[in-house]
Design goal:
The chain is mainly α. The chain is built from 13 helices and three strands, in the order αααααβαααββααααα. A three-stranded antiparallel sheet has the order 1-3-2. Strand 2 and strand 3 form a beta hairpin. Helix 3 crosses helix 4, helix 5 packs across helix 9 and helix 12 runs antiparallel to helix 13.
Length: 257
Amino acid sequence: KGEVAEIYEAYRAHRTRPTDDAPAGAYRFRPLTAFAEIDPLGSTCALMKNPFMLRVVTAAYHGKRLSPELRFDEAMDLFVDEVVVEKNAPAGPYPERRRWLDDLVRAFASAGESSLSIEALRKVPELRRALENPERDSAYVQLVELGVLVESWEGRECRVRFGFDRLFEDQLARLYEPDLDQPEDLVALAKRAAVFGSLRGALAILLGRATHHGRATFIGEALRVARDGSGDEGAILRRAAVDALTALARSRDPSTG
């Protein structure tokens, strides 16, 4: 009950109209569904236990009624469509943000890093123009303003990363998913995850999607291949499988530990 009450308070903050004493705040994103209408045992309520996913859900369903049974990947799709691309905004859509973000994910993946310096990113031809444009029509500037990307300073070096780890992991999973034809492809990602931490979260997302789409045999074969390997890929893949199954269980029953 306490956890549901916390979700209620956080969700209510998004639906509270601004006043002189409490201006705008989170009201920028306001779903139409009252909290009392949300099934406390449904997957939508389970997703909103995570503060980032609460923001994703409220942003994606601004001015709309919530879906009663929302999956993680559906919520992320909606977040990209409604917040990043703003496909239904009066002045939108902004597909260049989506393209630029895809190129950024490729750059991070190529480097095996979850953040890179602006100087390193300027060397990527597809990213350079937006990075060198300080005006608000720059896809990069817009993504920072939206909180999708964050700048941080390490000494004199400005580094860029995603504002939320789960968002980056989801985008990594979408980058690699089309190339997962054989169990060995999944094992190769697990090997790389030994030195690229964000890939571990992406692997759990990929395994969750594979489970949802009835590819349990594919996962089992990948686990068998990884078990026969000489590195850490077996342990990494097993951990990702446990995380994927735990997330699936929580989406169906929020009381799951």
